[in-house]
Design brief:
Elements lengths: L1 E5 L2 H18 L4 E4 L6 H12 L9 E4 L1 E3 L10 H8 L8 E3 L8 H14 L5 E4 L21 E4 L2 H7 L12 E4 L2 H5 L3 E6 L5 H9 L17 E6 L9
Parallel strand pairs: 1-10, 2-3, 2-6, 3-5, 6-9, 9-10
Antiparallel strand pairs: 4-8, 7-8
Helix pairs in contact: 1-2
């Protein structure tokens, strides 16, 4: 695991975009895994800038998103479909994008179908992750076991509370999501995790320094052969390394 600590969120976002740019320049038909939430916004802004300046061409890139809320229509502004189109897809020339269908009648079948689509694409070359304050990656919440494949997850109260700020009321926050499982995430050839802010410091410390434990889902990343972690100073504040 490679760790870098940055002075500002802006420099962190720039570094993350450089890592994605290197991947796409090296392999123009890369398969990339993407995330949502506030953490990757700066990185997506930098990728848009690189595209607008003619540095990057996304026309042969395929993307798979980590997750989608169950029951939220694509037209809802806080669906991850809408988030990705608003912040990245509609601003670059990417054509082949995939998100789980949180409105599928057969959610179990949708999970199997999503993993199969990733396999047919050749697997994810570079997966972007954030981390929840409880150590979750994707929407894989603390548990007594790691779940391998894409699955339907009941969100914890801490996750619902963290996502409350995006909705008009807590009652509007979806209680379930379709998410890549730990095994699906770990099958990526390389992983890039970003974390910013003091509210992530405890989770980062547990991920980096505690035992590998499904109660700290992100801790499994320590067993992956190619993980890069980019932190700002606040997120790195609890580390004793």
């Amino acid at each position: 695991m490679i760790l870098h600590v940055f002075e500002s969120e802006g420099s962190l976002a720039c570094a993350a975009a450089v890592i994605f740019a290197a991947q796409i320049l090296r392999k123009p038909d890369s398969v990339i895994g993407l995330a949502t939430g506030s953490t990757p916004l700066g990185t997506y802004g930098e990728l848009v800038r690189l595209y607008e300046e003619g540095v990057l061409d996304f026309s042969r890139v395929t993307s798979f998103n980590l997750d989608e809320y169950v029951g939220l229509p694509k037209s809802h502004p806080e669906s991850y479909y809408a988030f990705m189109h608003r912040n990245l897809f509609d601003r670059i020339n990417i054509r082949d994008t995939h998100l789980p269908d949180g409105q599928a009648e057969d959610l179990t079948g949708e999970c199997r179908k999503y993993d199969e689509a990733i396999r047919k694409a050749g697997g994810v070359d570079l997966q972007l992750l954030g981390i929840g304050s409880n150590g979750h990656i994707g929407f894989n919440e603390p548990s007594d076991r790691f779940v391998y494949g894409t699955n339907v997850i009941n969100l914890t109260e801490s996750t619902i509370s963290a996502n409350r700020r995006f909705f008009d009321s807590a009652d509007e926050v979806p209680r379930r999501a379709v998410s890549m499982g730990i095994g699906t995430i770990m099958s990526a050839r390389s992983i890039l995790l970003l974390a910013m802010g003091a509210q992530k410091a405890d989770a980062i410390k547990a991920m980096m320094e505690d035992e590998v434990d499904p109660r700290i889902p992100a801790s499994i990343l320590r067993t992956h052969p190619s993980v890069t972690v980019l932190l700002d100073k606040a997120a790195a504040g609890g580390l004793s390394l």
